[in-house]
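Subject: Predicted fold for DUF4124 domain-containing protein, 145 residues

User T.R. writes:
Posting the sequence so we have a shared reference for the thread.
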Amino acid sequence: MYRFLSPLICFMTPLVLQAAVFKCISPAGQHSYQDQPCPADHAAHTLRGGNFSLVTREPYQLRELQDSRQQTAKQARAMQQEQAKALQLRRRQHVQQDKHCRRLQARQQTLQRQLSLSRSPLQTQRLQSRLASLANDLHDAACPP
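User M.O. replies:
I've generated the structure tokens; pasting them so everyone works from the same file.
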């Protein structure tokens, strides 16, 4: 039985390998695909190649769409992380500025107390000069009055 089966397969293999698909376009513009040559009044395109599939590109397009959405989501997360870092940095700078202002204001109060207790004109003049310089520092640091 195998003796008859193997020649049969050998004879049928070239028939399968020679298969071609004909794309026929009718005069009305309708497309049809067939395994025989097109009629004379139809425009013909012979499609050669190995495997023809009825699968459309929709799964690939869906995958590309999903990939682009994932990229967009990654970019959005990266932007959110950058914004969070920037906000954290601004908060840290604000806290440091508040500390600096409190130190300057505490120094100003100390100098004002010393000025009220000063007895010599020279010491009063020096304290007033330091207070004026400190007032400039407070203004430069944009501390609230």
